[in-house]
Each structure stands twice: as structure tokens, then as C-alpha cells.
Amino acid sequence: MAQLWGGRFTKETDQLVYNFNASITFDQKFFHQDVRGSIAHVTMLAATGILTEAERDTIIQGLNSIVADVDTGTLEITGEYEDIHSFVEANLIARIGEPGKKLHTGRSRNDQVALDMKLYVRDEISEVQELVLSLMKVLHRLMKENINTYMPGFTHLQKAQPITFAHHLGAYMEMFKRDYERLTDIRNRMNYCPLGAGALAGTTYPLNREMTAELLDFYGPTLNSMDSVADRDYIIEMLSAFSTIMMHLSRFSEEIILWNSNEYQFVELDDAYSTGSSIMPQKKNPDIAELVRGKTGRVYAALTSILTTMKGIPLAYNKDMQEDKELTFDAIDTVKGCLALFTGMVDTMTLRKERMEASAKNGFTNATDAADYLVNHGVAFRDAHGIVGQLVLYCIERNISLDDMKLEEFQAISPVFEADIYDAISMKTCVEKRNTIGAPGQKAMQAVIDLNEAYLCEKGSGKHE
Ligand code: ARG
Questions:
Q1: Ligand 1 centroid vs 379 CA: distance in angstroms?
Q2: Integer angstrom CA distances of residue 3 from 24, 187, 431
Q3: From 125's CA, which of 119, 167, 244, 284 has a CA 20 to 30 Å away?
Q4: What is the CATH number that goes with domain 362-456?
């Protein structure tokens, strides 16, 4: 048991207590961030005269050698240390002796862990943004290629009006753009450095908090030392943004599962992204999409867990807050894995364009356009709605579509119909006439695609803000 605090105790910690309390098995995830924070801290301590430059250099060399040994596997992070902070400090003292004991001057594990978690979360937010960006690039390509790929649009999962595949994907594009921007907002809001807050009340050493904030790429120091060590809002915000990403991926997965089903056959998933059945030889299952849909629950669980953990905690630090880590790490890994696999799955799936178009043609997706035709010829919309309702019934009874009706049949129900009705309700017209901003018509779609192109170029150049 390697602990940083034995002095005032007369007994050894009970082993079960030690195990229950220890965090080394999971907080080693931010080992690199912990060392990065320590290097900034000692750099500042030397700049303010609290440490000598020689002490600073020895400590930094010692820290770097620990990193090198852990990275090459020469030094193992083991359970004999209570947490990652103790691991680093104990190894430092073992390597460099006396100066190592000065590393923790003017610092508490409370501001240290607050910093480590922030650095870790900040790095991961950027990685998730990159993955969202890769997905958006694939959607963008598919949108450009499918501006004229007709398919039915649904409400209540019933065929409603014809749209294009580009338009359908465009809906998800908007969701992922919002997801990306949400992460940018969170990163900006959290980007203040808690280091120097001490246990809760700052320190009497003349620390230069602006300096450490700058060394660690923060906008500046946090402004209340109690809030600095007690704030986990940024984790909650990130998990909320992740939950929304998963919700979007899950809806999209659900659609892909439907589209890939025998009944729809709008898409076919690549063999590399499908799995078979142990008993039914004919099966090719969309397991990746199903897993993404399924894993959404565990990301929501991480959010619910930390909201619940934080709700009863008095200021400032309490050990409950150690529970902010495991589920958060799991949620980060889950979101990253799901985004990467989902992107590959969408990128490689084959589109069955003729199936989509045929499906859009039956199911009366052009009924609204038939009503609009009547309105354009002077019929009130409510009457037009009734007339087209009769047409639909007529077709259902004969198992035909509106386009199959003869002109005399149209005219028997309403004399207003002329030969140009066929053109007015053709798939092409139904889609192409819809050119209000955000609609599926080619002109409207192209305008959005151009905006997306500019957006992706800007984000692709590495600007997250
Ligand atoms: N493992 C602890 C955590 O994750 C580090 C902070 C410990 N601070 C303390 N006062 N015991 O929260």
C-alpha cells in the first residue's frame, strides 16, 4: 500500500478499505495528463522562486523518465499505489530523492485531479469531434451523389411524400453539425484551469495561476477555488452531448436496419460490416447497427449516474466525486467506437436506387401534388383533398397507382383534370418543384450541399472554435 498520507494514522488501512478507496485501476487513464500538469506546476514554482531552477530541472527530468519507462513497458502501473498521483510521486522520489518531495508544494490532489480530468476530457472532446467530422464527410459524399435518387419520405412510418436520398441524409447532416458545435461550446466553456485552487481555499504560496493556465493551453484560471475542485459540470455537459450523438446514431441505425431488411431492400450492408447466423445459413445480419443502437443505453447511463452522484454533494471536494471516472471513460470509448464503426458501415453500404424509386412510386406519395394541381386550377384545398381521397380509394380498389389511371378516370371524379396531370404528379416533378430552403428539390438541395461543403472545409482545416 503506497499512500501519500500516513503521518497522523496509528494503524494500517484495512485491505478491503484500501481496495474500496483506491482508484489506480482506472485513473491511470490520465497518467500522461497528470505528468503534463505536474510539469506545468513545477515550471511555475521555479518561475515564482518557490523552487530553484535546478530542482525544477531534476523534477522534470525525473517525470519524463517515468513517462518514457511507462510508455516502453519498463515500468508498470500497479495496484500497490492508491491512485495515479501517488504512483507518479512515489516513483519520482524513488528516482531523484529530495527534490521529488517538493513536487506537491502548493497543490492538493483535489485541484490535481480536477485538472487531470479536465485535460483528459478536453483531449477526448477533440477526438470525438474528429470522428463526427469523418462521418459528416461520408454523408456529404453520399449527398452529392444522390441528389436525384428518389425515395419515399415517411411520417408514422407510412409513405408520405417523395424525397431524395440526399435529402434524407441531409437531415442527419444537420444533427451531426449541431453535435459538433455543441462539443465546441462545451470545450470553450470548460477551458479554465483549476490548478492552484489547492484543497479548496487556494494556497499561501505566491502561485502564478495565470502562468500554469497558459502553459496548459487554458484561456485562464478558474475564479473560485471551491468551485474549481467541486465542478464536474463539464463532464455532465459532455455526457449529455454524447447522449445526443448516440441518440442520433441510434435513430440512423434503426433506419439502416429497416432499409437493409428483406422488406425494404433500400440498401445492402457490406459483408465486412455484417454477421451471419450460427443456425440459419441464409442470414446476413446488421449487427453493427444493432449494437450502436444498443450501446446508446450505456452512454445515457453514464449521464444519469453522474447527475445522480453530484446532486447531493456539499462543497467542496468529497470522495463521491471519484465516481465521475469509470462510466465517463466507458462512455468516451463507446461513443468513439460507435462513431468509427458507423462511419465505415455507411461508407461501404450499397444503395439499391431502383428499389427506393419503385417504393416511392407506389404508396400514393404524389397524392399531395395531385391536390395541389387542383388548387392551381381554382379548386379550394379542402375540396381538392376530398377529391384526391376519392382517387386514392379508386386506385386501392383496383390495386393501381395514380399514375396508372386513364385521363377519363380522373375526369370522371373531377372534370378539372387535364392531360398535364401526369406531368404534375410525376416523381420528378413532385421532388423538383419543392425548392423552398431546406426542401428536397435539386436547386434547394444544391444550395445546402454548397453550404455544407464550405462548413466541412472550414472544420477540416483543424479549427474547432
Ligand atoms: N482519486 C481521487 C478522485 O478521483 C483523487 C482525489 C483525492 N482527494 C482526496 N481528498 N482524497 O477523486
A1: 74
A2: 12, 33, 69
A3: 167
A4: 1.10.40.30
Give the span between the Cα atoms of 217 and 173, in whole angstroms.
31
Distance in Å, CA 144 to ligand 1 centroid: 51
DSSP state of 320: G
* CATH architecture, range 110-141+163-193+223-358: Up-down Bundle (1.20)
CATH match for 6-105 among 3.30.70.260, 3.30.70.100, 1.10.275.10, 3.40.50.720: 1.10.275.10
Alpha-carbon distance of 49 to 29, in angstroms, equals 32
Q: Which residues belong to the active site?
A: 156, 277
Q: Is the CB of 317 under 6 A from ligand 1?
A: yes
Residue 109, ligand 1, Cβ within 6 A? yes
Contacts of 18 (CB under 8 A, 6+ apart): 1, 82
Helix (H, G, I), strand (E, B) or coil at 168: helix
Asked if the model's pLDDT at residue 353 lies above 80, the reply is: yes
Question: Using a 6 Å cutoff on CB, does residue 112 contact ligand 1?
Answer: no
| Dmax (CA) of the chain | 102
- Letter string b/e over residues 250-269, b meaning 16 or more CB atoms within 10 A of that residue's CB: bebbebbbbbbeeebebbeb
Grid coordinates representing 374 are 387542383
User: Cell numbers of 72, please?
Assistant: 516502453
Name the residue ranges covered by the structural domains of the chain. 6-105, 110-141+163-193+223-358, 362-456
pTM above 0.90, yes or no: yes
User: Separation of 110 CA from ligand 1 center, angstroms?
Assistant: 6
pLDDT for 277 beyond 80:
no
CA distance 45 to 102: 10
Given pLDDT bands bounded at 50, 70 and 90, which one contains residue 361?
Answer: confident
Which ranges of 260-366 does DSSP label H, i.e. alpha helix? Answer: 287-310, 326-348, 353-361
Q: Are 199 and 110 in contact (CB under 8 A)?
A: yes
- Which residue type occupies 252? F
